[in-house]
């Protein structure tokens, strides 16, 4: 990992009612063999049980793509849709 940038409205003042909150995280990863990089495994459900969806965007070997990850997904394929 060569860089991170995380921002959130989770610290905003809340009422007693459950509300939606966003967490934005940007990670920069450098892979020594990107041709072999086929999928990303996200295990967020075990550390953040309330996560409903993660929108992922990537660039690998000059190709870009985007997908949504949900807790019932195993690995996130890094291939364009």
Strand content: 35-45%
Question: Which stretches of 5+ consecutive residues score pLDDT under 50?
Answer: none
Q: Give me the secondary-structure category.
A: mainly beta
Instruction: Tell me the distance between the termini.
Output: 25 Å
User: How many strands appear in the DSSP assignment?
Assistant: 6
Side-by-side strand order of the widest sheet? 1-2
Largest sheet geometry: 2 strands, antiparallel
Mean pLDDT: 77
**SSE sequence, one letter per element:** EEEHEEE
Shape: elongated
Helix fraction, binned, reads under 10%
Number of helices: 1
Based on CA atoms alone, the radius of gyration comes out at 15 Å
Provide an overview of this structure:
The protein has one helix at about 45, and strands at about 5-10, 25-30, 40, 55-60, 65-70, 75. By secondary structure, it is mostly beta strands. The strands form 3 sheets. The protein has a two-stranded antiparallel ribbon with strand order 1-2. Strand 4 and strand 5 form a beta hairpin. The model has no long low-confidence stretch (mean pLDDT about 75).
Please render the helix and strand layout as text.
Elements: E1 3-8, E2 23-28, E3 39-41, H1 44-47, E4 54-60, E5 63-69, E6 75-77
Antiparallel strand pairs: 1-2, 3-6, 4-5
In short, what is this structure?
It contains one helix and six strands; from the N terminus they run E-E-E-H-E-E-E. With 81 residues, the chain is mostly beta strands.
Keywords:
81 residues, mainly beta, two-stranded antiparallel ribbon, single chain, 1 helix
